[in-house]
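Entry for the shared binder. Reason: the reviewer on the internal report wants the predicted structure included alongside the sequence.
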Amino acid sequence: MTCTALLTFDGTAPAGIVDVDVVIPVYNEEAGLEVSVRRLHRYLTDRFQLSWAITIADNASRDQTWGIACRLANELAGVRAVHLDERGRGRALRAAWLASTARIVAYTDVDLSTNLDGLLPLVAPLLSGHSDVAIGSRLATGSRVVRGPKRELISRGYNLILKATLRNGFTDAQCGFKGVRADVAQALLPLVEDNGWFFDTELLILAEHNGLRIHEVPVDWVDDPDSRVRVVSTAQEDLKGILRMVRRLAAGEGNLPRGALPAGPVDPSLAGQLLRFASIGATTTVLFALLFVVLAGPIGPVAADVVALAACAALNVVANRRVTFSRRGRRGRRSEYSAGMAVAAIPVVLTIVALAGLGAAGVTSVVAELAVLTAVNAAVAAGRFALLRHWVFR
């Protein structure tokens, strides 16, 4: 069921054309729902610089939550309410996000524990295309958090367990303040299996697993003493979820199909790829020169050439995979790195031959050796680019 306010005013629009759709998942929240929605509505109306909508996602409440949500949707422009017959916070978010046609889908917990001034920093990198997912973090440098020692210990312990088992890069999986680009949500949500509190964590793990960029915003957060979260049972379910994700990723699951997401702002044309390849090449050329000059004396020019080229080749392949050819995620990464390093062996062989020629001619100047090596590397760059484009990252 859906209740929608069709009225619009300056700064808002129907949900289909807004920049940000802020979802509030609720279950039996009759006591605080109206105060929180009106507070959020007032903030967005007065202070938010983007077009917006608010969606109240009621997952099978048994009290007066649904009636209050419908009344708010009828009274407040830009607010709608949706009702699900089954419980589950993750289920509510999934349904609301997939039904939205806003550019960015976000959510905040109904208690509004997170300072709303963090909303614009949360969604701005998503609208610009810089990031794919954005999260508020209570554990990032710069955050200010007020909560009891028990909740603090549980939160930090959970995130440490998560990092130890899944080696994630994000700091706070559970903060109820997140945003996702709509196209990313449409591609990623079918992979998310959990419908409860582990939904957030699973979404982030899968996003990172597929090479998506996660932006973190330090937040000001004040614990709600009337929180409905059952800490012990939720922690147990979260631990089960972590074990399930460990098994799932170990089995090679959780990969987005290739082409499931658009390439984003990266120019896929030949000219664009050549420009990015040349920029990376220039950077690694400077690094090669520095390494060669430093190592040539202690270990000799041939060994210095091999070590410097190996180090630069590894960085070059990683950068070209991500930047030049817009490859993300772990799928195919190992084979692409192996093939890329095989291509890097070509200049190694040619530069060793060049150094042997210089040695036979009696040339021992490091400057002359470096000049010849740079020229050889530049000469084979076009061939390397062709092999990367048509073989390694075809």
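Summary line for the report: The beta strands are 2-4, 20-26, 52-59, 79-84, 104-108, 133-137, 144-146, 177-181, 214-218, 220-222.
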